Amino acid sequence: MVAFHRLWCPFCQQAARDLEQAGDQLAAAGARVAIVYRDDIDTVCASCAQRGITADCLSDPQQELERATEVERFSLGRYAMFSPMRLIRVLRSGSRAGKVTSDVLQGRGTFVVDRDGRIVYAHHAVTAADIPLIDDIVAAVRAVAGGAGA
């Protein structure tokens, strides 16, 4: 399972916490979780350690992996099309808006990839606040694993 996040993005931080909370379910189904960031490896490792993220945190500053999955940029209008209450909720749950270190309009994506390298689940964020449902990710992982951990 691969997710493309931004360290500075409060919605990405929430999505990472959601993945962390579902870690046992995902592991039981045989999934390995990787979260890919655009920052340098030292910054990525320090941030993930500070936030208690145990998933594999990867650095892709040249966006080679991201381009391969065709994660699209948001338009300015699409980026901002979310309820301010969504932002308030993620901030209250522990997210912090950080210093923007990459393209603010670059979209996010979450993918479940089978052992043959085929993408069997893809969630392309529609707005900045569009976080995939963990139940959908777990279901896709279980389907790939043939129901393991169900």
Based on the model shown, name its key terms:
38% helix, single chain, Glutaredoxin, 150 residues, five-stranded mixed sheet, alpha/beta, globular, 7 helices
Task: Give structural notes.
- There is one protein chain.
- With 150 residues, the protein is α/β, with parallel strands linked by helices.
- It has a single domain, classed as Glutaredoxin (3-Layer(aba) Sandwich), CATH 3.40.30.
- Helices cover 38% and strands 15% of the residues.
- It has seven helices and five strands; from the N terminus they run E-H-H-E-H-E-H-H-H-E-E-H.
- The chain has a five-stranded mixed sheet.
- Strand 4 and strand 5 form a beta hairpin.
- The chain starts with a strand and ends in a 6-residue tail after the last helix.
Strand order of the largest sheet: 3-2-1-4-5
Quote the CATH topology: Glutaredoxin
The computed structural class is: alpha/beta
Element order, helices and strands?
EHHEHEHHHEEH
Q: Count every beta strand, where a strand is a DSSP E run of 2 or more residues.
A: 5
The CATH C-level class name: Alpha Beta
Oligomer kind: single chain
Q: Can you tell me the residue ranges where pLDDT is under 50 for at least 5 consecutive residues? A: none
CATH superfamily: Glutaredoxin
Distance between the termini: 17 Å
